[in-house]
Amino acid sequence: MRRITIKDLSKFLSLSTSTISRALLNDKNVNEETRKRVLDAAEKLGYKPNLTALNLQSGQSKTIGFVVPEMITPFSSKVLKGIQNILYPLGYRIIITQSDEDPLVERKNLQLMEEFNVDAIIINLCHETQNNDIYEHIMKQGIPMIFFDRIPHKSLDVSKVIIDDYIKSSLMVEYLIKTGRKRIVHIIGPTGIQNAVERLNGYKRILLKYNIFDENLIVHTDGMTFEHGKKAIKQLLSRNIPFDSIFAFSDTLAMGAMNFLLEQKVSIPDEVSIASFSGTELSSMVYPQLTSVQQPLEKMGEAAAELALEKIKNSTFPSRTILMDAELVYRAST
């Protein structure tokens, strides 16, 4: 069956195609009676709008770019759900890409978004400084960029949704100390992102406060997977460095470490307590369940979407920072 077009509606109603297009877009210059005639005819004939064509006429693509390091864990998908809560009812579509923690892949994804002429980009970056030039370029093209969780260097004036990583990390490490732990390992996140630095600084501050800081207990990784968490702890054990607890940058790193320790017959939390930052569903799907800093991921997505709408409606609207709270959730791993 042939697709019904605006030209078919034009012939059926004896109206110009431009009038029908404006009516379908709820243009204020089309009177209510004409608009109703057009909508009734569209329903009767089974007209399905060509959204791309209509959006070009309105000057918007009604499409938002979503650029994240990964879609494997629930972290990004929960943020995406929040974005959808706000944007789907308004008729927006979302293009999703992942960078795999590679700034070059992220750059290509951003170039793709520019080619698609998206109305805005919501992004969780993979390096604080490496793609600043393309962020600036895209914003100069009139495409707003909203950052969440991981944010670019302070030199860029952007809207963002963040957690106070420094304070929440401090609180979690202090909790571990108050449960009797003194040899607390920190598996750090990627060194090129600001929240990894903030979490490390929060960890350091508390251990220095209690005069138990040991540089040997900071473990660097070259990735964020379960396997990287396992390798981090394997490295400590091979160096015979004693520890009684772990605070990891993410759930995946913490769970990788925990699984390896369990394989070695280490009792958790009796011998080693484990805590993490992120608080995705993964933390409650393992045994023992994982103590974590739980971020309001869906609400972060909703806030990022609202910031995007502000910039779409008015490109000169001042950039804003939304600081969201996170909850320390204590589970069986501590």
What name is given to the CATH topology of the largest domain? Answer: Rossmann fold
| Count of spatially separate domains | 3
The second-level CATH architecture of the largest domain is: 3-Layer(aba) Sandwich
Assign the CATH class of the largest domain: Alpha Beta
Low-confidence stretches: none
Helix content: 40-55%
Enumerate how many helices there are, as a single number: 12
The total count of strands amounts to: 12
**Major sheet:** 6 strands, parallel
SSE-based structural type:
alpha/beta
The CATH superfamily label of the largest domain reads Response regulator
Shape: elongated
Average pLDDT score: 92
Strand proportion = 15-25%
Distance between the termini: 63 Å
Strand order of the largest sheet: 2-1-3-4-5-11
Keywords: DNA-binding, Transcription, Transcription regulation
Pfam families: LacI (PF00356), Peripla_BP_1 (PF00532)
GO molecular function, one term: transcription cis-regulatory region binding
Organism: Chryseobacterium jejuense
Description:
There is one protein chain. 44% of the residues lie in helices and 16% in strands. The chain is of the alpha/beta class. It has 3 domains: 6-57, Orthogonal Bundle (434 Repressor (Amino-terminal Domain)), CATH 1.10.260; 63-163 and 297-324, 3-Layer(aba) Sandwich (Rossmann fold), CATH 3.40.50; 165-294, Response regulator (Rossmann fold, 3-Layer(aba) Sandwich). The strands form 2 sheets. A 6-stranded parallel sheet has the order 2-1-3-4-5-11, with helices on both faces. The chain has a 6-stranded mixed sheet with strand order 7-6-8-9-10-12, sandwiched between helices. The radius of gyration is 25 Å and the shape is elongated.
